[in-house]
Design brief:
The structure holds 2 protein chains of 2 kinds.
Chain A (H helix, E strand, L loop, with lengths): L2 E8 L4 E6 L5 H16 L8 E4 L2 E8 L2 E7 L5 H19 L4 H6 L1 H11 E2 L2 E2 L4 H14 L1
Antiparallel strand pairs in A: 1-2, 1-5, 3-4, 4-5, 6-7
Chain B lengths: L1 H10 L3 H10 L4 H15 L5 H18 L7 H8 L4 H14 L10 H9 L4 H14 L2 H14 L5 H17 L3 H13 L4 H17 L8 H10 L3 H14 L4 H17 L3 H14 L4 H15 L4 H15 L3 H6 L1 H7 L5 H14 L5 H14 L2 H15 L1 H4 L5 H13 L6 H14 L4 H13 L10 H13 L7 H9 L8 H30 L7 H21 L2 H14 L2 H15 L8 H27 L6 H18 L25 H8 L22 H12 L5 H11 L10 H4 L10 H4 L4 H12 L18 H4 L14 H10 L1 H17 L2 H24 L4 H15 L2 H21 L4 H15 L4 H4 L1
Helix pairs in contact in B: 2-3, 3-4, 4-5, 4-6, 5-6, 6-8, 7-8, 7-9, 8-10, 9-10, 9-11, 10-11, 10-12, 11-12, 11-43, 12-14, 13-14, 13-15, 14-16, 15-16, 15-17, 16-17, 16-18, 17-18, 18-21, 20-21, 21-23, 22-23, 25-26, 25-27, 26-28, 27-28, 28-30, 29-30, 29-33, 30-31, 30-33, 30-34, 30-35, 31-32, ...
Classes of the chains: A alpha+beta, B mainly alpha.
Family (chain B): Belongs to the adaptor complexes large subunit family.
GO cellular component, one term (chain B): AP-3 adaptor complex
Keywords (chain B): Golgi apparatus, Membrane, Protein transport, Repeat, Transport
């Protein structure tokens, strides 16, 4: 499994989206998110975007007030994951138009939907923005 | 009925309302959430599916972001799932993939829902259920839905097909037998030209190949095609990952892929792909020099970049290369050293690791100098990181890389003075360790220790206490190297020592004791040589003094540092006059007097010992001062005898002690260890049991001593091992009958003094030790360029021997890869494979063991055959494993074959579930895969 989890966390450390690709109990998740937020949010702009945590790495990137954190296995390509984060943001941007934290809060289900289009079983399956968004747009139209 | 329902749905809070309410936080988050949860619990029981689904949606939200348990709603989620409306289904699937896991009780009820949606004509419904399956599939779901997934894998709707391909990974993992059904189709998808499908398939194979690369070697041609043809960086990265796993297994494959990878490296503009190429080359293709050079040539692009991410990755690549190609690190030395002062702690640590990788015998001095200077400027955390890595690198393999120990000891002293240093304990251990192991360094060690001890400021630093402890021990133990023992004495007794913890203070006092004895003895010797003719009564002491002096001289000559030592020798007595001795004794009394009432037993007892000794001897020196040489009374003689004996006791050298030394003590005849244990317990109840590594040394001279003396004697020896030993010694004194007689001490004393030639005599179990030592001394590790030869470092057997690596079993060989191999390696191999594996399943454990023994040697022989690349090897191999079957006794063979036949029919279902069977199966597959690859490689 390449990607273990994807988190979106705001500056205050509140989780805005959490997607796990392995089963964790609520308590484990709470602990994990707490640790990661403490570790990553304390870092500054001059520091690199990779943090080793437990037995895996976290690749993160900050967009405005939102941190995108991706937990990956150690042999995953960090730069590719950074590109993936950027792709995710661009995709959401295209859908919501200038995406912000509130968009994700109020359309959490849609954000999940996009993620699930992009990642299955922890590996990236879709990297074309059009392919990711078409089903969502179709569904929006039909409902 | 519709009335309340309508009312409910009108007044139900939507998810949006919930989020808004949460944001306003009028009544506090927790209160608001629990109120919302209460509502949800009610709403979710509603018969109206839209109310139910909204409730479920809200619950999913709270569960996902606020960690609220939603397991109570599992059944309701299923109900929503059965709704005909797509929007409800979507909510239900979302909730299910968030909350279901392998042990969810209603998991089995979902099978039919999933099946229905998987066969739906609406591709979005199919997609939803596939996505859900990729998260929650367990054995049962995977088994029951395999046919549907198989169908979908060749669907003409790409949207569905790629998801079906992706979900296969989870299905394979949970239910390996599905490989038999789906694997072929998965491979077919590998040829698909559509980029969507391709990235999904490659993703699956990348994960599969990570777990067990060997099974996928036959697919190398397909992967190769993708590596050459694909333009998609995501796909290329995955393919590179696969080759990184496959290449080390098959040299011919590595040879084949190295060129295309280099091509990518030259051409690509994408840093992520470039990085992956570089990493693949340095991890898996490190034998291909040109490729490695090309890859290393790309590293500076990363290292000098402004982007900290690239810098970090560049350093990481270097640390991978460093294991095999150290030159790559040296090439980028400048950038690496520069990164030591980066803003990012992660980068700093990476570069520190690299710098340490560069350390060798020749440059350890310079690098340590640079690092220590750097540590001075760094923040405390990184400073200790640096110090820690210097300490561990330098002490690796019994100080393998250190040639100049004088330098290293002074470096240790310097390091301990760095303000942020928290490595006191490690430095303490190394100082003592080096002192014991390396004779030649003791002079310098004493000098460094003196500098540390004499500085009153250092006593205030808590982290330095352990270092001071080592320093005080070293200067006490090797006081004969000291230039000015009187000054040392002052340092050891200075008032600020009250800042030390009692355990260390006790060591200070003990060291002061040793120094005191040394001073008195030196003084006596000095006098003795002057007055020996006039006072015949002093004769015995003089004789033994000169003997010990002589042996000491021999020793120093042998060590090759005689010039400096004699210098110390010459100047020492010059300081000591009768007056200074009297002053010394007064100072001891003054400093230690108050400690007689100390609350700490260790401190108190040692202080008492020293004061007792002073009492015994003081009179003599007072007499001396009054009546000079006219002293021929018994009392004076007695005192000098005591000093003599004490000096002998202290000058006995301590060697490093092997952890297994205790085991070498043979049990004396007639000793019944278990006798009287009941009594012992009663006696011991007031004393803590000594730790296992402490024991008391005996000493031959003890036998002629008075009883009152043996206590001190033992204390001296035990000093080095542990405080608790002194308790033991005390105990020994009180309850002598439970101990071995002291005369036996020769036996227990086989921990040799450092590098003592006599040790060859009494060694029995330490033969290895001996060989090491002689090797050391015969062939000193020295380079002609070194001005000074590397001093002898005493080693002990268990320090030298690397821990035996645990035998690795092929744990990876799970049922999944077994199944994959079966598919990939044709039917002819399947027959023996399945029969054999099932054989071992069925057979008794005894037979299983036997079978493993049979197969084990074949593993190696066959792998060799695979490597030699002989096309005819296949047949030979096949024969050889036929032979293997013949190895078995005929009786068993028939029985097994019968079972094998029987099992063959069932094998398609049962096979692969039993791990025990897989181990036996493996070699056969290994042999079988060779033929598939050459077609491509030749």
């Amino acid at each position: 499994m390449g990607i273990r989890f994807i988190l979106m966390v705001n500056k205050q450390g509140q989780t805005r989206l959490a997607q796990y690709y392995e089963w964790l109990t609520l308590e484990e998740r709470r602990a994990l998110e707490g640790e990661i937020v403490r570790k990553c949010l304390a870092r500054n702009e001059q520091q690199c975007s990779f943090v080793e945590h437990r037995n895996y790495k976290i690749v993160y990137r900050r967009y405005a007030s939102l941190f995108f954190l991706v937990g990956v296995d150690n042999d995953e390509n960090e730069l590719a994951i950074l590109e993936f984060i950027h792709l995710l943001v661009e995709t959401m941007d295209r859908h919501f138009g200038n995406v912000c934290e509130l968009d994700i809060m109020f359309h959490l289900e849609k954000a999940h939907f996009m993620l699930e289009e992009m990642v299955m079983n922890g590996s990236i399956v879709e990297t074309s923005k059009a392919n990711i968004l078409t089903p969502i747009q179709l569904m929006d139209k039909s409902s | 009925m519709s009335g309340p329902s309508l009312m409910d749905s009108l007044f139900q809070r939507s998810l949006e309302d919930l989020i808004k309410g949460l944001r306003q936080q009028l009544i506090g988050e927790q209160a608001f959430i629990s109120k919302a949860l209460e509502e949800i619990r009610k709403e979710i029981k509603s018969t109206d599916l839209s109310i139910k689904s909204t409730a479920l949606l809200k619950l999913s939200y709270l569960s996902s972001l606020h960690f609220h348990d939603m397991s109570f709603a599992t059944f309701h989620a299923l109900e929503v799932l059965s709704s005909p409306r797509f929007s409800h289904k979507k909510i239900a699937y979302h909730a299910i993939s968030l909350s279901f896991h392998d042990s969810t009780p209603v998991l089995l009820l979902i099978t039919n829902h999933l099946r229905k949606d998987l066969t739906s004509t609406n591709e979005f419904e199919v997609s939803l259920s596939l996505r859900c399956l990729s998260k929650i599939a367990n054995v049962d779901l995977a088994r029951d839905l395999t046919p549907e997934i198989f169908t979908l894998m060749s669907s003409n709707k790409l949207y569905v097909r790629k998801k079906a391909v992706a979900v296969v990974l989870r299905v394979f993992e949970k239910y390996p037998d599905s490989v038999r059904v789906c694997f072929k189709r998965l491979v077919e998808n590998l040829d698909n030209s559509d980029p969507q499908i391709l990235s999904a398939v490659i993703g699956v194979f990348c994960e599969l190949a990570c777990k067990d690369p060997r099974s996928y070697l036959p697919l190398a041609p397909e992967f190769y095609k993708i590596l050459v043809d694909s333009k998609n960086n995501w796909v290329l990265i995955k393919v590179l990952k696969i080759f990184a796993k496959l290449a080390p297994l098959e040299p011919r494959l590595a040879k084949r892929v190295v060129e295309p990878i280099c091509d990518h490296m030259r051409r690509t503009g994408a840093k992520s792909l470039l990085f992956e190429c570089v990493r693949t080359v340095v991890t898996s293709l490190s034998e291909y020099d040109s490729a490695v050079r090309l890859a290393v040539g790309k590293v500076p692009e990363f290292l000098v970049d402004e982007d900290p991410n690239l810098k970090y990755l560049g350093l990481q690549v270097l640390s991978i290369v460093a294991q095999k190609h150290l030159w790559a690190v040296s090439q980028n030395k400048e950038a690496v050293i520069k990164s030591l002062s980066d803003a990012d702690p992660n980068i700093k640590i990476e570069s520190l690791r690299l710098v340490m990788a560069m350390v060798s015998e020749c440059n350890v001095t310079e690098i340590s100098r640079v690092l220590v200077n750097h540590a001075l400027k760094s923040d405390p955390e990184f400073c200790n990181e640096i110090l820690g890595s210097i300490l561990s690198t330098c002490s690796r393999n019994v100080y393998e890389i250190i040639v100049d120990f004088d330098w290293y000891v002074s470096l240790l002293g310097e390091m301990s003075r760095i303000p942020h240093c928290h490595k006191g304990e490690e430095i303490e251990n190394q100082l003592i360790d080096i002192g014991i192991r390396v004779k030649d360094v003791r002079l310098e060690l004493v000098r460094v220790s003196r500098d540390l001890l004499i500085d009153p400021a250092l006593l205030g630093n808590f982290f330095l206490h352990r270092v001071l402890c080592a320093a005080s021990w070293a200067s006490g133990e090797y006081v004969k190297f000291s230039r000015n023992p009187l000054e040392l004495m002052e340092a050891l007794l200075q008032p600020r020592t009250r800042l030390l913890p009692p355990s260390i203070r006790a060591i200070y006092i003990q060291s002061a004791f040793k120094v005191l004895v040394f001073c008195l003895h030196t003084y006596l010797m000095q006098r003795g040589s002057t007055f020996s003719s006039t006072s015949p009564d002093n004769l015995p002491s003089v004789v033994s003094a000169s003997v010990s002096d002589e042996s000491f001289d021999n020793l120093s000559v042998e060590n090759g540092v005689d010039a400096t030592v004699t210098h110390g020798q010459i100047c020492t007595p010059a300081f000591i006059t009768n007056e200074s001795i009297v002053n010394l004794l007064n100072m001891v009394e003054l400093a230690l007097g108050p400690l007689v009432g100390s609350h700490d037993v260790e401190v108190q007892e040692r202080a008492r010992n020293v004061l007792g000794f002073v009492d015994l001897t003081k009179l003599k020196f007072l007499n001396y001062s009054v009546q000079e040489e006219n002293d021929s009374e018994g009392k004076g003689v007695e005192a000098s005898n005591i000093i003599e004996l004490m000096h002998d006791a202290f000058s006995k050298e301590l060697g490093p002690i092997s952890l297994s030394a205790q085991g070498n003590v043979s049990l004396p005849d007639g000793l019944i260890v278990k006798e009287n244990l009941g009594d012992l317990e009663m006696i011991c109840c007031d004393i803590e049991l000594p730790s296992s590594n402490s024991f008391s040394f005996g000493s031959p001279c003890e036998e002629k001593d008075g009883v009152s003396f043996s206590n001190l004697q033992i204390k001296e020896d035990s000093e080095q091992s542990n405080e608790s030993t002194s308790l033991l010694a005390e105990h020994r004194k009180r309850h002598g009958l439970y101990y071995l007689p002291l005369g036996k001490s020769e036996i227990s004393n086989d921990y040799p003094p450092a590098n003592d030639p006599i040790l060859q005599g009494n060694i029995n179990g330490n033969a290895v030790d001996l060989v090491k030592i002689t090797e050391e001394s015969l062939v000193p590790k020295r380079k002609p360029s070194h001005a000074k030869p590397r001093p002898v470092v005493v080693k002990l057997d268990e320090v030298d021997e690397k821990p035996v690596a645990l035998k690795k079993f092929e744990s990876k060989d799970d049922s999944l890869s077994g199944a994959v191999r079966d598919i990939l390696f044709g039917s002819e191999d399947m027959v023996p494979t399945s029969s054999q594996s099932n054989l071992s399943d069925k057979s008794s454990s005894k037979r299983k063991g036997k079978e493993k023994q049979h197969t084990a040697p074949h593993v190696e022989s066959k792998e060799n055959l695979v490597d030699d690349g002989n096309p005819s090897s296949r047949r030979r191999k096949y024969r050889s494993h036929g032979k293997e079957r013949r190895h078995r006794s005929p009786r068993k063979k028939t029985a097994e074959e019968r079972e094998g036949q029987k099992e063959k029919e069932k094998s398609s279902h049962r096979h692969g579930r039993h791990k025990s069977g897989q181990r036996a199966e493996e070699p056969l597959n290994v042999s079988a895969q060779a033929p598939v690859i050459p077609d491509f490689l030749l």
